[in-house]
Amino acid sequence: MKLLAACLGLSVHLALIPSAGLATERLFNLAPQTNTGYELSTIPRLLINTTGEGVELSLELPNIQNFIERSALPSTTATALKAQLEAGSDSFQFNPAAECQLMSAQAESSYLNLAAINLNTTPYALDVNWAFSCAKPAALQALKIALFTHFPQGFEQLAIEWVTDVSEGQLETNLDTVIKFN
């Protein structure tokens, strides 16, 4: 919380404001820890945003070690993992009437840029961003998320948050799911 105040140029100690702790927990998805203060949540998050012309998705994996080990991918090269993660059309299917196509995908992590990596000693986060263009964005009604099928055992849970021009929502799941946008 002090970091938030410092970033905003404030000299207020947020602990003195009763509601600041809860608001900060929600804003940064912080999970309370006993004795050690706060630590970033380890649950992967998928953020979905409709843009009026398509959909942007962002997957945040706070601990790539868990994902790789659970997915049985330890022998996968960084290049192969990057390609597999960026294949968004395999993991996401929109309702056919919207005619959505993958336009770009980018996986970003220090893990993907290093030649020699010791996953046992260095924690790495991973962000994957996909942009889909929809020929008929007004027809966009649903998105099937198949990350659990595409990466068996890679996730224990997935927190999903979405914002469209008509709705917003969030859920946590441990199965492939369909998000309805209306």
Q: Which series of helices and strands comes N to C?
A: HHEEEEHHHEEHEEHEEE
> What's the average pLDDT?
75
Summarize the amount of helix as a percent range.
10-25%
- Intertermini distance: 36 Å
Structural class by helix and strand composition: alpha+beta
Biggest pleated sheet: 6 strands, mixed
Low-confidence stretches: 1-40
What's the total helix number? 7
How many β-strand runs? 11
Could you tell me the strand content as a percent range? 25-35%
- Overall 3D geometry? globular
Radius of gyration: 18 Å
Task: Please provide a brief summary of the model.
By secondary structure, this protein is an alpha+beta fold. The protein is built from 7 helices and 11 strands.
Please give a structural write-up.
24% of the residues lie in helices and 35% in strands. The protein has 182 residues and is of the alpha+beta class. The chain has a six-stranded mixed β-sheet. Strands 5-8-11 form a three-stranded antiparallel β-sheet. It has a two-stranded antiparallel sheet with strand order 1-2. The longest helix is centred in the first third of the chain and has 9 residues, at 20-28. The radius of gyration is 18 Å and the shape is globular. The protein starts with a helix and ends with a strand. The model is unreliable at 1-40 (pLDDT under 50).
